[in-house]
Structure formats: C-alpha cells, structure tokens
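Quality-control log, excerpt.
Job 1 of 2 completed; input and output follow.
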Amino acid sequence: MRKFLSSAVAATLLCVASGAQAGVTFEAVKKKGFLQCGFAGIPGFSVLDSKGEWTGLDVDMCRAVAAAMFGDASKVKGNVLTAQAKFTALQSGEIDMLSRNTTQTLTRDTTLGLIGVGVNFYDAQGLIVKKAMNVKSVKELDGATICVQPGTTTELNLADYFRSRGLTFKPVLVENYDENFRLLESGRCDAYTNDKSNTAANMRTRLAKPDDWEILTENLSKEPLGPMVRQGDEQWFNIVRWSLNAMLEAEEYGITSKNVDEMLKSTNPNVQRILGVTPGMGKNLGLDDKWAYNIIKQVGNYGESYDRAMGKDSPLKLDRGLNKLWTQGGLMYGWPVR
C-alpha cells in the first residue's frame, strides 16, 4: 500500500511539473515572435525617446524577458495603459506582461486572476505642494483640495492617511498626468499625490518651474512596484521572476554588460551558473543556458538599468535609496540562481 501511494504521489508530482512547463503564455509569445508589455508612459519607468524607442526601468524589465526568451531584447512591443485599464489589458490577453510601476498588494494578487512577480522598485507615496505655501507637514493640509488619480491604491492610501489622522481633504479625481499638473499649477488643487518617484519625474517634465515645488518628506504608504502576469501559468511567472533576479544577482557579483564576456572565465561557481558556464539553469525554465547571459549582455544588470533610467546617467538623477542592493544598505536582494 505504501509503495502504491508513493507511486501515485510521484505520478501526481510529475504531472504538476509537466503542466508547469507547458506554459500557455510562453508558447503564445514564442509563436508571435515578440513580447507585448503594458507601460505607463512615465519618465524613468517607460517613455519613448527621440528615436521612437521605449526606454526606462520598466521597459528594461520587459526587454530582459525578451532577451531570456528570444536571445534578442529588441523583440518587444509596448502599450501605454492608464491606471484603470492596466489590469483589464492583462486579464484579456491584450498584453503578455504588465511592466508598469504597479503596487503589489494582497487584493491584487487574490481577486484579479493576476499575480505580482517581484519588486523592481521600492517607493512610497507622497504629496507635492508649492514652496510658496510654506507647508512642511501633511497635517497642515487639513481641508485642502488634492488632485489624485482615480481607481488606484494612491486614492485609497490618501483617504486612509487623512482619515486615520482626523484630517479632511477634497479630492479632485483626474486620470491624465498632464491634466493633474495643469490643475496643480493653476491653483485648482493645493497638492497632488502619487508615488514619489513618479511625482519627481513628472514635475521635471510637466511643470514650467519645477524648482518652485517640493515633495513633502512624509510617506503616505509603502509602494513595492513590480511586474504582474496572469495566474495559472507557472512557467511564464518563473521566467519573468528569474529575469529580474538574474539582473539583481549580476549586479551583486559585479557582472555588467561591458565585462560579461570576460566574466565567462570566472571561477566563481555562482557566476558560472548565472552565465550558463555550468549547464542546467535554463532547462527548468524552458530556456537555453544563455538566458541570463543574454539579459546582462543586452540589457545590463539592475544597477546599470537604474542608473540609465533614473539615476546618475539619467536626467532625473534620483538617488537609489531603498533600491540599492542589500549589501549596500538597500532592499534589493536577488534570489540565488542555482
């Protein structure tokens, strides 16, 4: 009886493993020859450059998955999605992956048929006000009119924060970024709230005199941002998750787009596994062993992506803060590729 049960369990596990490999999304993406991602159109995260090409941290996440799948990071197409349309686009199959500064929450993981893959940017929600108002704390905004995007965790966080502190506010619900900042500049809104990185990027591109404005130091929420995929397709989930981890692991081990070929000679067993020198790491993903090498060679490690999109090599010059590696005092912690 024990032997029979063991055989039954083994057979069940084999079926589960086989099912995980037969990824519907993987096969669909492979068949059409490109990866369709949902973007936000926010500086630093995803914007079209002067050449009409997508750039940004979230774009690099999408490009990394394309590099892992096709060996070609350019096999990407982007859809600009509003906060209200982004989940529907993923649920319907309009996009293969939502790579749009989306907050990971329990409700989103359990009620939408979608699931967060990991965090590629740790953020917090804040409020931007005009310096001339001389406001130094959120409590001084009691009764203020605040612009906020509808149908977002941002709207819910704002209400929670004010209510829990006995404060009131008048919301102005506007989806469009340009319109929000237009209302802010015109004085229709006393403040605007969104993720701090989002606000910092937008104030530089959408306000006529960005130096006249400031983001208050208080954090209204925690905002772990990252890509999402549809539930029930473990192979696709794993490919996206491990593409992110490969970029983080590469930075930790000092593997860059510039030295990756030289690092193929490394005797470090962790580096050998990441770069496919030691075989086997691609098989269980349904990929070849050069999947992570292709990501690093064509897209770079996480630090390279951050510096190019938001950090020292970008117009935004945003400090990495929580997005530094855990070895440097941040929260970015790549899982072992082994």
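Job 2 of 2 completed; input and output follow.
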Amino acid sequence: MAAFFAFLGPFHTAFAFAGTLIVLCFILTSLYFFAKNVFVFYLAEPLGLTVDFKNLGKWAVVTGATDGIGKAYAFDLARRGCNVILVSRTLEKLEDVAKEIEAKYPKIQTKVIAVDFTEDESVYDKVRHALQDLEIGTLINNVGMGHPYPEYFHKLAGGEEFMLKMIRCNCVSQTLMTRIVLPGMVKRGKGVVVSLSSAAGEYPVPFLAVYSGTKAFNDFLGRSLEQEYRDKGVIFQVVQPFMVATNLSGTRKTNLFILGAQEYARSCLNSVGWFTKTNGHPSHALQNWVGAVVPAFLRSKIMYAGMTSWHKAVVNKLKKKGTYKEE
C-alpha cells in the first residue's frame, strides 16, 4: 500500500489542481446562472431591456388562448401594446377573452379564430386564410393537451385515437402554425416564435409517455429552428415550465414553485431574446438546475417511484368509483 501511495506522489499536485479547477468551474457557472436569472427576470423589464413586441409586427397570435398560460400570454402581450389574435377551440370562450382584453386595454384590437387542433390538418386552411395579409410579429405556440391521469402506455384511455389527438394538438400545431407565420417574419427580418414545451420534455416521464414525447418534440423543433433562422432576425424560444396553476396541471393553488399563469407568462415574455431555452421563471429554473445536478440513474428512480405512486393512487380511486376501464 505504501508503494502505491508513493507511486501516486508525483500525480498528487495534478489531481489537486484538477479538483480545484472543477470546483471553481462549478462555483462560477452557478454564480453566472443565478446572476443572469436575477437580471433577466427581475431587472430587465424595469430597465427597459426586454423585447419591444409591438414593434415586431402589428399582431401577436396565441394558440390555446382561452385559459391558463395561453390566456395569460395574450393579456400580457396586450399590456405591452400588441393587438392579439386568439386561437382556440370554443368560439364563445374566445369571444369572452377578447372582450376582457379590450375592456382592460381599450386601445388594443383582437381577432378570434375557432379551430380544434386535435383534428386533421384541414383546420390550418382556416387559420391560413384568417391570417393572410396580417402583419404577425409574435407567435405563441401554447396549445396543448395532456393525459387524463398517469397510465401505462398500453392501457391509455382512448387508445390510439387519443394518442393521435395529442400528437396533432401538441406537435402538428406548433409545426404548422410556425410554417404559416414564418415567411412574413423572414421577409420583414424580425419576429418572435415561442414554443411551449414542458419539463416533461427535458426529463422522460413514465406513465405520461406520449405527453413527454410530444414535449421533447417541441423542444427540439424550437431549438433546431433557432439555429436555422438566427441570422434572419427571427427570435425562437423554447419554454419548459414545471408546475403552473392551470386546468392542464390540475391545480389552482400557488406557492413558491407553483406559479399563477399571469405571473408566469409575464416572466416568460421578459426572458425572450435573453434565453433561447428557458424554464420561464427563477423558481422553475432552480428546479431544473437541481434536477440536472442529480445523477441520471437516481433521477430516473425517483421519477419512476413518484409516478408509480401517483398512478396507483388515481387508479384505486377510479376503481372505487367504478369508472376505471381496462384498455
């Protein structure tokens, strides 16, 4: 043993230096992470250093705009001076949101487009016709749907048809909506396209496999397009929220880590142009930072244990009610 340590002797200084360098790099990157998040999310707007959305184009388009994050994006874009085109499934709800925006911001114009993004690609003809000749400066690709509850892939309620609806809503919508508005942005040399992904698109989530997969698609689509168009004047951003208090998340309670939709959307819009990919708020960025530090094998075990427990609790509850159906 003494001979072994004697052998290591000459390398001791090199090992010590490498260890010190690794620790120093970790400290510096952590400080940079916290400093940039504080600046972007808390100081950029008061200092007037956020994107001026109203100068990118006369209109902003928000999909999934009748509730949750989408509705909050629409209101905050109106606050920033943008006319807003609201796109969602139910005309009555769209008209209600449009009236709310115009009542709160009398100088802002609104338009509504009622389409069901779970249907086939023919719905985009209606969208394309409604948007033609309009100067679209901002697109918020927000519309999305999730699982009714955590379930094994082969037992997923609704089967293949439900899976296809989710893929159409979560993936096809972002692809084709971007395809519709992007030529005008490229022609003018300016614009913003925001793609709502999810933390479930960063980390694989068992029992929510289809949702997790579609959100990973959103992430890669947005980041690939950012590289493709970064010299064309068009800003692309991918947003990966953790829990936000919306109907989709199933909770309306807020705390330090579960934010209200309005606070979250405002924070996200402040980060456009600063972050190509963001969790949208410092508390969500912190959750992601912690998740990234945890080794992948351990994170996977923790995720599986948590989702298994949730799945069992929901299934047992449904069985007691007699509403659980085996696919």
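Post-run check on job 2. Residues 133 and 184 are 9 Å apart (CA to CA).
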